[in-house]
Design brief:
Structural class: alpha/beta
Number of strands: 19
Strand content: 15-25%
Mean pLDDT: 97
Bound molecules: uridine-5'-diphosphate
Shape: globular
Strand order of the largest sheet: 8-7-15-16-17-14-18
Number of helices: 12
Helix content: 25-40%
Low-confidence stretches: none
Largest sheet: 7 strands, mixed
């Protein structure tokens, strides 16, 4: 069997490895000049920099964790995010510490009690749920969080309000009735020591895998099975039109001093045109007299100009994706997967879980 995988990101690399270990020959191609897709990273001044923005591996799926752990050792990094809200740098997601940092004590105590009475401790509440609560203090809080944390960030990120985007997107960052300042509560979290690119390189290092970079797909390529982790509309020559995506522009700055901010990521919901600043040395505790940060500017994806980052989940786009899937079903030996191939906002662990399922379901 000749397997051709298009796209050498985390999805393509994971699937290549699974196929190779089952004894099959795999060729994996990518039009870019590097492996690892959007998790590509590189070293500069002793700091591991994520070229396409900050990536933090986190999962509660043991099978996924076990798979990835075969290709790296982990630095036990636990992600924390802060946001500039009303002039203060406070924990994001909004939690009980954020509440006490932003409000006078009497007010914070009263609201904290109401949150605990209504939801309990260590419970995540989507902002759109909190807004529905029939209590004037909780409604005040919900409106405050909506305006100060979600509304303008989401307008910058998606060009739409949180009410207009799919709730699965704004629901990713809840209000957290907790003192836990971490961004994720998954059992397994970490950053691969040496970086993601080294991890993917190890994944691809198998006698049955051939990697070809700077190699776009063309229809004359020979295969028995094709696995396409690019955008599905591209495979079908955009015959029903383009699937929309959001893209990002990163401005990297190297500062000649050792520290820029207190944590790896600081969000700026209400200020500036960028959404957040990432400082890379935190991920692996890299020691350097310099520091490297990226300012993240969301923008619409434009074919040929920038890269696809985020599928835009809404009914219209889901219907368009379904039309392409119908074409895909007629192909027989072509499989679509990954964030772009499935048009789904996968985190890295979900992308790998999808590969595990796909691998099990391949026609043999
Ligand atoms: N979000 C927000 N304010 C924040 C953080 C997140 O409004 O301070 C919303 C925004 O719509 C964003 C979504 O929550 O796109 C998901 O955020 P996440 O941090 O998961 O995004 P990613 O890291 O995948 O870009």
């Amino acid at each position: 069997m000749k397997n051709l995988i298009v796209g050498c990101g985390i999805s393509g690399a994971a699937l290549a490895r699974m196929l190779a270990e089952s004894g099959e020959q795999v060729t994996i191609i990518d039009s870019k000049e590097h492996i690892a897709g959007n998790i590509y990273d590189y070293y500069q001044d002793g700091i591991c920099v994520h070229k396409y923005g900050t990536h933090i591996f986190h999962t509660s799926n043991k099978a996924v964790w076990d798979f990835v752990s075969r290709f790296c050792q982990w630095y036990p990094y636990q992600h924390q995010v802060r946001g500039l809200i009303d002039g203060q740098i406070v924990p994001i997601p909004f939690n009980l510490n954020t509440l006490h940092a932003l409000f006078p004590k009497s007010m914070a105590d009263k609201i904290e009690q109401k949150l605990l009475d209504n939801f309990g401790l260590n419970v995540k509440v989507p902002i759109l749920e909190l807004r529905k609560k029939d209590d004037k203090d909780l409604q005040f809080l919900a409106q405050y969080i909506y305006e100060k944390i979600f509304l303008e960030y989401t307008l910058k990120q998606w060009g739409q309000t949180p009410d207009e985007i799919d709730p699965s997107v704004s629901g990713r960052v809840p209000v957290y009735v907790s003192r836990d300042n971490r961004y994720f509560q998954d059992k397994y979290q970490g950053i691969p020591i040496g970086g993601y690119t080294a991890m993917v390189k190890k994944m691809l290092n198998h006698k049955n895998i051939t990697v070809k970079l700077k190699t776009p797909f063309n229809k004359n390529m020979k295969y028995d099975r094709l696995f396409w982790s690019g955008s599905i509309d591209e495979f079908f020559d955009y015959q029903y039109g383009e699937l929309p995506y959001r893209s990002e522009r990163f401005e990297f700055i190297s500062f000649p001093y050792s520290k820029f901010q207190d944590v790896a990521v600081v969000n700026y919901p209400c200020n500036y045109e960028f959404t957040r600043i990432g400082e890379y040395k935190y991920f692996l505790n890299d020691q350097s007299p310099k520091t490297i940060v990226s300012y993240e500017f969301p923008e619409p994806f434009e074919n040929g100009k920038n890269d696809r980052y985020y599928p835009i989940a809404n009914d219209k786009n889901a219907a368009l994706y379904q039309k392409y899937l119908k074409l895909a079903a007629k192909q027989g030996n072509v499989y679509f997967f990954g964030r772009l191939g499935d048009y789904k906002y996968y985190d890295m662990d979900k992308a790998i879980a999808r590969c595990i399922d796909l691998f099990k379901g391949i026609k043999r």
